[in-house]
Amino acid sequence: MRKHSELQMQVLRLYRDILRCARSRGPEERAQISRFTRDKFSQPIARTQVTRIEYLLGYGRRQLEMLQMAGTKKVEVRR
């Protein structure tokens, strides 16, 4: 079994952190955050698209920061 690269570990860490943050919310919001997160993380991206992956990691971290702020109520849906 291969070890994960550092970039893969960062993606997995972000995924876990977002789901942990969702646990602190109410049932409806938790379900919405979980669905949104699973949907975004399940979209296939080639390993060779490192720049895109790094961009999405930054975007995800900013979204996590917004979720962690006390007054945030919804997840921004960006297409």
From TrEMBL:
Keywords: Mitochondrion. The keyword Thylakoid does not apply. It comes from the Eukaryota. GO terms for biological process: mitochondrial respiratory chain complex II assembly. Pfam families: Complex1_LYR. GO terms for cellular component: mitochondrion. Residues 10-66 form the Complex 1 LYR protein domain. It is found in: Mitochondrion. This is Complex 1 LYR protein domain-containing protein. The lineage of its organism: Eukaryota, Haptista, Haptophyta, Pavlovophyceae, Pavlovales.
